[in-house]
Amino acid sequence: MNKGLLILFASFLILLATTYANAQPIPPNIWEFSQDYYDVIGEPLLSASIVGNPEYESGETSTIFIQLMNDGLIYGFDTEQTPVGTNETKDAQKELDLEYDVNTAINIRSILTSSNKTPIRVISGLAQGGSLRSGEISQPIAFDIEIYNNAHPGIYELVLNLTYQYQYDVKVEGYPDQKIDYLFVTKNQTIPINIIIKPKAFFEITNVSSHLIPGEQNILSITYKNTGSETANDAVARISVTDPFSTNDDQAFLGTLKPDGSYQAQFTLTIDDDALPKVYGINTEVKYRDKHGDIKISDVMKASVQAFEPVSLSEKIGTMGYFVIIVVVLVVFGLFIYSRNKKNS
Question: Is residue 26 domain-resident?
Answer without folding.
Answer: yes
